Amino acid sequence: xxxxxxxxxxxxxxxxxxxxxxxxxxxxxxxxxxxRIGQPGQVRVDWYPSEIEAKNAxxxxxxxxxxxxxx
Length: 71
Description:
The chain has one helix and four strands; from the N terminus they run E-E-E-E-H. By secondary structure, it is of the alpha+beta class. It has a four-stranded antiparallel sheet, with helices on one face. It is elongated, with a radius of gyration of 13 Å. It comes from Salipiger marinus. It holds the Pfam family WGR.
């Protein structure tokens, strides 16, 4: 899932990418990458014991980003 926030008047060109990935032992990871469009970003990986918990975390983050102007 890719989210973007573009506001040319304030020189804001940001992206936020999230991906769910299964682990080797039945756990799930939420991989997040964010930064300026066209540049390499920062990466963070959070682990969850089940897929549903990882999906819930992704949804919560998506809602937080929507409040900050990401689409």
